[in-house]
Amino acid sequence: MNIPLLIMIIVCAVLLIISMILFINNRKIHKDIDKLSTAIESEKLTEYSTADNHFSHLHNAVADLENRLRLEKSNTARESKKNSEFISDISHQLKTPLAAMRLYVEMEHSESPNEHTEKELQLIDKMENLIYKLLRLEKIKSDSYVMDFAFCDIKEVADEVTSEFKPLFPNKEYTVTGSSRFRLDKAWMSEALGNVIKNASEHTADDGKIEITIESSEQSTTVSIKDNGGGVAEEELPKLFQRFHRTENTNPNSAGIGLAITKAIVEKHHGTITAENTGEGLNVIMCFPHIDGAIAI
After folding, report:
1. pTM
2. Tell me: the pLDDT tens digits for 243-266?
3. What CATH number was assigned to the domain covering residues 71-141?
4. CATH number given to 150-289
5. What SS3 string covers 25-94?
């Protein structure tokens, strides 16, 4: 056997060994990746790796991130519960003196009705309504309410809500296009849509238009509620869903909590809500992921 042939055989053997090693390492990496992906998707925390390689560093970084997220979620839930309990305590403490105040004002108003006692009763009504809405908002955010999820066509919900507003705003035009079935709580979704539609109805002209557009894909449903009321200032867009935020032309009787409640309801459906100005008015966009199975939210 000549030297060049022997060298070629040795080179081929070395290349074959290297290829086998690379193949085995590649299979191992794929296996480790699949294992890590499964661990991330599961509810259990990823266990730390004791190996000393680059992939183990990534593995442990994921485990660290999961632990931090779990801790942050726990802290957020704890603070949310504290806040809810604080709001609840304050609300209950305010209810007693408000009830007494209402009684005295009503007695005075029945004996000698005048514009002052009438105005006082209106303010008491507003205060009681504000306390009620604020308490509901905090209870939603702190998971005090149990959502009743079931497959439902959101078009049916939108149709029912708009039918309630048509008698209140007879000259306005309400349209609902598209449909999509996914898991939702019908009662809470009705309130979420109703708050946005009410806001749009109050911020448009007497003959204004409110268009509800439903678009569905395999993964999600998008609901857009667009009006022709002229929109809001750009700097106010990020604040629309904050509690107590009021735009310049807000109804004086508004508590500034309705859109904050809508945001909380959307988030309890694992969704997102945003707002943008169009050429004619405001467009509020809700996006809901399609989640199968019974999920406690």
Report:
1. 0.67
2. 777 666 665 566 678 899 999 999
3. 1.10.287.130
4. 3.30.565.10
5. HHHHHHHHHHHHHHHHHCCCCCCCCCCCCHHHHHHHHHHHHHHHHHHHHHHHHHHHHHHHHHHHHHHHHH
